[in-house]
Amino acid sequence: MGDTLARVFEYRVLYAKHRELQIPLTEEEQSRFGMLRRELPTHVPNADEHDAFTLLDEPLSAQYVGAGEFQSGILRNASAIGLAIETTEDPPKLGQRLIVHVQDPDSGVEYTFPVRVIARVVAGLPSMSVVFDGVPSETRALGRASGVFANDEPSVDGEASTEGQFEDERVTAKMSQL
Fold first, then answer.
1. Considering the domain 2-140 in this protein, what is its CATH number?
2. Residue-range domain boundaries for the chain
3. Which residue from 77, 141, 74, 78 is spatially nearest to 107, judged by alpha carbons?
């Protein structure tokens, strides 16, 4: 599940770097980009599509923001060029630009994709298909008990790094004294 989304994200980053930002790819990036382009489907899926190549093993919760509204849905399908999201309410209008947030609980990563609505279903199960429209981002959310998020990679033993934790606690204590 998370592997599919991670691969879509990696493809979109390489695509944006090369095509949108005009930054040359390294040989390794070119090789990876070509491999992902061959492996990932190149059509925008529908939410009720059961294509084994776009269907996520487990649907993921998704939130999207656009035109001053915050809504939620369920990410059902993902491809190299778009996503299919089942919505809880009527989907946004065609052509509307959105920011989609999807958190993969298995890896602790939240993906953020700028998208544009290209198809919507309002009868029956409300859903939308969106195409990617910009540079995506990811946030590693290795939580601490304080509610502060760390952008650290796990250490060799798989545990989150505590480096800087005591410094954070001292800063928090000083801030509360002010």
1. 2.40.10.220
2. 2-140, 143-177
3. 141
